Amino acid sequence: MLKNFSKSKSGFTLIEMLVVVSVIAILSGVVAVVLNSSGSQGKARDAQRVADIKRIQTALELYFSDYREYPRTPASTWIRITGTTDLLTTALKGGSYMTVVPVDPLNTSTASNPCDDFTKYRYNYKDTTGNYYILTAIMEVATSDDISKCKNLPIWSSQGCSSGDTWSGTTDYCYGVQNP
Fold first, then answer.
1. Kind of pairing, strands 134-138 and 123-126?
2. What is the reported pLDDT for 56?
3. Burial class (CB in 10 A: 0-12, 13-18, 19+), 177
4. Cβ(156)–Cβ(150) under 8 Å?
5. Is 151 or 51 the better-scoring residue by pLDDT?
6. Minimal CA–CA distance to 176: which of 135, 126, 119, 127?
7. Which of 15, 22, 118, 150 is disulfide-compatible with 174, CB 3.0–4.6 A?
8. Element (H, E) at 14
9. Considering the entire predicted model, what is its pTM?
10. Is the pLDDT at 5 greater than 70, yes or no?
11. What is the secondary structure of 125-164 as a DSSP string?
12. Looking at per-residue confidence, does 169 or 117 come out higher?
């Protein structure tokens, strides 16, 4: 009498394992491309920069409504907004216009002038008369400054910066606003 010795096989074959590993590799590659397509992290930081500048701008208008002038910088001087000890932060936090003055998400520069060190990220401010101000942010993505390029501001060239793109042309993404 013959006995049927059938063993139950459990597990996966080598082919099945290779197919699963290949599918996972393809999916992870697609996800990596989608998550970083066109510098999406840079675009997100640039959107944060625009929002921060608008918040600072709102606080400046509240300051102006109380004092009838904007916080003044020393003659012909730009300042870098540090969020701690700079002139603008002191004025806005001291008057309770902002509890926290935002700084650039990367904040990689110590430069005070937006016309210099244009590949490093920070916020700058200038107002030497109390009548007008300029706020700037250096952006990461080329199109992020299209809505308000520094060079297109009416008083930009009078601030010691060129009205044209005299920088490298590939990294001069300066977003700027001035008081209305």
1. antiparallel
2. 95
3. buried
4. yes
5. 51
6. 135
7. 150
8. helix 14-35
9. 0.74
10. no
11. EE-SSSS--EEEEE-SSGGGGTTSBGGGSTTSGGGTS-SS
12. 117
How much is the average pLDDT of 48-57? Answer: 94
SS3 readout for 37-90: CCCHHHHHHHHHHHHHHHHHHHHHHHHHHHHCCCCCCCCCCCEECCCCCCHHHH
Report DSSP state, residue 96.
Answer: T
- Tokens representing 108? 């990689």
Report yes or no: 101 and 83 within 8 Å, Cβ to Cβ: yes
CB burial string 54-66: b at 16+ within 10 A, e below: eebeebbeebbee
* Structure tokens, 99: 């509890």
Report which of 139, 161, 179 is spatially closest to residue 56, judged by C-alpha positions: 179
Torsion of Cα atoms, 109 then 114 then 117 then 122, to 10°: 20
Question: For the ranges 51-60, 67-76, 153-162, which has the lowest average pLDDT?
Answer: 153-162
pLDDT in tens, 15-34: 988 999 999 999 988 887 77
Share of the chain above pLDDT 90, in %: 31
